[in-house]
Amino acid sequence: MNTLMELLEIQSVSSDESNIKEFLLNTIVKRKQSWKVSPEIHNGPELHDCLLLKFGNPRTAVFAHIDTIGFMTRYENQLVPIGSPEVIEGAVLVGKDKLGPIRCKLFIRDDQPFHDFARAIDRGTLLSYEQHVEIDEGFIQGAYLDNRLGIYNALKLCESLEDGWVVFSTYEEHGGGSMPYLLRYIQETSPVQQALISDITWISDGVFHGEGVAISLRDKFIPRKKFTDKIIGLAEKSGITFQLEVEGNGASDGREVQFSPYAIDWCFIGAPEDNAHTPYEKVAISDLEAMIAMYKYLMAHL
């Protein structure tokens, strides 16, 4: 899991994904010759900090977002959330501006978040939770398992994938925006009619640790039932542990697939976590393993 540990240490707040994109690109270039199929790598200024891998003749695309939630510094030590982080009194935030590294604590005044750094921080500086990863008793815990585990799953998929797109998207945590041009690029290059969203979902009153990867039948948005029925049928044949999720809120890159002008079916499939959008996100390792196995099975059979 060395790659996952490295992924968890890279800061990548929405709008600032270039460092993790470069890490992924370097990792892929080093490893692609050992994969079953060596993919075409698509990246460049026309794709901003997104990265696409084309394997063989794609029928399905897998999307994993590479950004995280965080905070931006404003005026008079004020912080503005990016995405929807939990605003936790005393949480340690890290980052850097032109004067150097920053490590400070978050505090709340008049229901608004502030930082306690000893000097003024440059306006617009991005801060994220300080990382402390723990692996113990069958669980992994730390900040930004959403969506570092989704990225890790996508990389593991690459090892054996013969046909498909693997796409690393940006801005998912803060309103999206990269998916429209990614979808257009895919449909103009090697079109697909199916998509899987490699992301992390939530523990809820019906989704639990240790009961397998969650196949989402809906969040705020609803994928086409014909497609989710197909996914469930394959999941049952696979013998891999899974659970079904039905929620009434939340969203992912699947939202933008559904809202696109293309007739692409989609389904969110991911391990569930506790303590979402905090420094203490927690996922059962068995559920992550089920997620990795399920994606490999589905991409071979869809």
Structure commentary:
The protein has helices at residues 2-9, 18-31, 145-158, 179-189, 225-238, 253-259, 285-301; strands spanning 40-42, 51-55, 60-65, 70-73, 79-82, 92-97, 100-109, 112-115, 126-129, 134-136, 139-142, 164-169, 194-198, 201-202, 213-218, 242-246, 265-270, 272-273, 281-284. The mean pLDDT is 97. The longest helix has 17 residues, at 285-301. The radius of gyration is 19 Å and the shape is globular. Helix content is 28%, strand content 29%. α3 packs across α7 (285-301) and α5 packs across α7 (285-301). It is of the alpha/beta class and 302 residues long. It has seven helices and 19 strands.
Key attributes of the depicted protein:
single chain; 302 residues; alpha/beta; Aminopeptidase; Elongation Factor Tu (Ef-tu), domain 3; 2 domains; eight-stranded mixed beta sheet; six-stranded antiparallel beta sheet; 7 helices; 19 strands; globular
